[in-house]
Design a protein that fits this description.
The structure is a single chain. The chain is of the alpha/beta class. Helix content is 35%, strand content 16%. It has eleven helices and 16 strands. The chain has helices spanning 29-37, 52-57, 96-112, 126-138, 167-180, 194-204, 240-255, 270-279, 288-293, 296-312, 316-319, and strands at residues 7-9, 12-14, 18-20, 42-43, 62-66, 72-73, 84-88, 116-117, 119-122, 144-147, 185-188, 208-211, 215-217, 233-236, 261-263, 283-286. A nine-stranded parallel beta sheet has the order 8-4-3-16-15-12-11-10-9. The radius of gyration is 20 Å and the shape is globular.
């Protein structure tokens, strides 16, 4: 793997910025090993917490793919790369002691190939979360990621998933974790005013933040006139990439170029990874792509990104935030009186 792919997340040096995101594809030892074998710089395992209700939620999952007209797409071995994922999901069900033992083993394997397997928690009870994070640290995991407001949280059983979406709450959660956690601590944020929440996370002591989560959505079925899957569910797709890039750029502007950002939602290949890097990400999560295409999505994306950089004689650090730093105001662009007429139907001119 070429040196031009190397990037940093605070104190950690990554061999490349491609992160296998937390999801069903990283819920097993085999899935995590496949992502490591494919070359991921970081693997985010399926998240867990202490709540039995969150574990039981996994038994009520369902998944479907939708095209750009919101029609179902058949889930084959190679579905369209641009299909939207609409799903209910839950948390890792395995006993925490057993799961932690596996994660510690896998992170040691990852270290041998220059990668990381990160401990991944979803907040419910704060003190329980701190204790689980501490145990991950004691087991030797070299970084921990905590999601403070999961997209499925609003639909979860009472007492299963906490939803911290205000800056004071985020700062307080991170401050409490930071008192105990000495390894790199990353905080995943909900898709509200991300810049404010990112600033609060940094103030509390986070080493990096990642965003944006998928969106809770309702998609009516025109045939049955009922909701797809019968419920609201999380929606992810290529549509999310420009929105994630917007928040990356605005957060970079607010916090400065040195604070590490991890982009997620919408990246389906190496060129999408490059787009998020240009918007300000230091690393990029790919979750839906790995669910749809398997670990091959990781190796293919790494090669595409490497080819893109090689063609321009560039490195990952050189392009991080380049597009974000070139943003201008509307009024800084040339005035074109009447230009709007070129973009409406002739009868409306």
């Amino acid at each position: 793997m070429s040196d031009r792919l190397k990037t940093t997340l605070g104190a950690l040096e990554l061999k490349n910025p491609v992160v296998a995101g937390s999801g069903e594809a990283t819920m097993t030892v085999n899935g995590i090993r496949a992502a490591l074998k494919a070359g991921a710089g970081v693997v985010m395992p399926k998240s867990c917490n202490e709540a039995e209700g969150a574990k039981r939620q996994l038994d009520h999952t369902d998944y479907m793919l939708l095209d750009d007209r919101w029609n179902p797409v058949e889930w084959t071995d190679h579905p369209p790369i641009d299909a939207h994922l609409f799903c209910r999901s839950g948390l890792q069900q395995e006993n925490f002691d057993d799961w932690l033992e596996k994660l510690a083993m896998l992170d040691k394997e990852a270290e041998q190939v220059g990668s990381y397997v990160v401990g991944h928690l979803i907040l419910n009870d704060l003190e329980q979360c701190v204790r689980m994070a501490e145990r991950m640290q004691e087991a030797g995991l070299r970084a921990i990621n905590v999601l403070v407001a999961a997209v499925h949280g609003d639909q979860a059983a009472k007492g299963a998933i906490a939803m911290v979406r205000d800056p004071v709450g985020v700062r307080d959660v991170v401050t409490r974790l930071r008192k105990t956690i000495k390894v790199p601590l990353w905080i995943k944020l909900p898709g509200h005013d991300v810049t404010v929440l990112a600033a609060a996370a940094r103030e509390g002591g986070a080493d990096a933040v990642n965003f944006i989560d998928r969106t809770l959505a309702l998609v009516p079925d025109l045939k049955t006139r009922a909701p797809y899957l019968g419920t609201m569910a999380a929606l992810g797709g290529t549509w999310g990439l420009p929105i994630a890039c917007r928040w990356l750029a605005e957060t970079r502007r607010r916090l400065g170029p040195e604070f590490p950002l991890i982009g997620t939602n919408g990246a389906r290949d190496g060129l999408d990874v490059a787009r998020m890097l240009l918007a300000g990400a230091h690393a990029v999560e790919m979750t839906t792509a790995v669910m749809l295409q398997g670990a091959e999505a990781i190796s293919t994306s790494i090669k595409q990104l490497d080819d893109y950089l090689a063609e321009g004689g560039l490195t990952v650090p050189q392009i991080i935030g380049e597009a974000a730093d070139k943003l201008t105001a509307y009024t800084d662009q040339p005035a074109r009186p009447g230009h709007w007429r070129d973009f409406v139907h002739e009868e409306a001119r």
